Amino acid sequence: MSGTPRRVRQGATLTLVFGVVLMAGAASGAWGEPLTVPLPPSADAAAQLAAGRDVTGADLSPQQAEALVDASGDRWAAYLSPDQYADLVRGRYLGVGLSVDRSSNGSTAVASVQPGGPAARAGIVAGDRLVAVDGTRADGLPVTEVVARLRGSAGAPTDRTVAVTVSRGSAAPREVVLGRALLAAQEVGVERLPDGVTRIAVRAFTTGVAEQVRIAAQGARAVVLDLRGSSGGLVDEAVATASVFLDGGPVASYESRGVRRELTAASGGDTATPLVVLVDGGTMSAAELLAGALQDRCRAVLVGARTFGKGTVQQPSRLADGGVVELTVGRYYTPEGRSPDGSGLQPDVAAAPEGAADLALHVLSGLGARR
Fold first, then answer.
1. Is 61 among the residues known to form the active site?
2. Would the pLDDT of 259 be above 50?
3. pLDDT digits (tens, 9 = 90+) for 280-316
4. What pLDDT is stored for residue 9 in this prediction?
5. Residue 267 annotated in active site
6. What is the pLDDT of residues 141-154, one digit of tens each?
7. Is 214 exposed, middle or buried (0-12, 13-18, 19+ CB in 10 A)?
8. 104, 351 in Cβ contact below 8 A?
9. Which of 182, 176, 145, 180 minimizes the C-alpha distance to 163?
10. What's the DSSP call for residue 356?
């Protein structure tokens, strides 16, 4: 069995594979502690997963697919059941409607709360400290594991609820039992700030995200592209998002089975509007690809903290039962030839989580964004 727990890998795919299954070269991942990600060492298991067949040529069963995922040695390999995939293509995920981040002091904070979701109905707000999940202290777990515990396993009766302990300011911690629900994915958030600044937050790169970013950026005097906690997603969408701010040229390249493939921006993008990109330890995979391209092309200033460091590409394959498996097929590189895999991207301007947003606006003012 590989070193990453199955539920963590599955949680990664549940976060990111929406809209990706029929597209080669999709990149996915999960929040967590930066680690060097090896390519699959088990060629036999990887080949069977990719073919969707066992050694006799028969279709893989779900149990065989999960066993091969574990045997593949691929940290990011994952299997989704047909029901899980059906929910994802409808833009839904099982969860409680909150995202988390690791604060500069090491505590686990609630980064955002989805309006109308279970967490919001229980009175949890962004900025609360997440003390524990089902009795286990959150600070002692990688963020990947916290996310996996919050989401649980789709369809499992014992996973219908999760107990979370939260605190706010100097108040005593309180425990709340949240019922998990199928929630609509909300990947792009737009905020109009003073002086014509538009903040565009991208939580994952699913189908249509680049077009939403393009529309949101129109007419802005300056843009803050917020990729903090952005878990990656479709490489094509990340490249299309880069095309919003670049006029052609390289975005990234990736090496798959010894063959180097180039990813380039479309021509005609906006190269004049001042741009700052916010990043942190939750910025990963396709989000790192985008941030690295804008940094290497001198199109944006990166503000925040070192990114996660997942520079691998996953390719999905459909099984006969309608389930999906994903396997790592290569690593990608920024236009300057850097691989963020294992090391992440260093921001141009370092900032603590609590001050990053204000510092981004200050950097924009230095780029001539203010009147």
1. no
2. yes
3. 988 989 999 999 999 999 999 999 999 989 888 877 7
4. 39
5. no
6. 877 678 778 877 54
7. middle
8. no
9. 176
10. H
* Long-range pairs of 263-268 with CB within 8 A, sequence gap ≥ 24: 263/235, 263/239, 263/332, 264/239, 265/239, 265/293, 266/240
Catalytic annotation, pick one of 285, 317, 339, 365: 285
3-state secondary structure 19-63: CCCCCCCCECCCCCCCCCCCCCCCHHHHHHHHHCECCCCCECCHH
Output DSSP code: residue 334: -
Amino acid at 7: R
Q: Kindly name the residue from 170, 310, 339, 343 that is annotated as catalytic.
A: 310
Residues 6+ apart with CB under 8 A from 138: 100, 108, 130, 131, 132, 146
What are the structure tokens assigned to 346, written together?
């260093």
Tokens in use for 190? 């737009």
Structure tokens belonging to residue 98: 């909150």
Q: Which residue has the tokens 């286990």?
A: 136
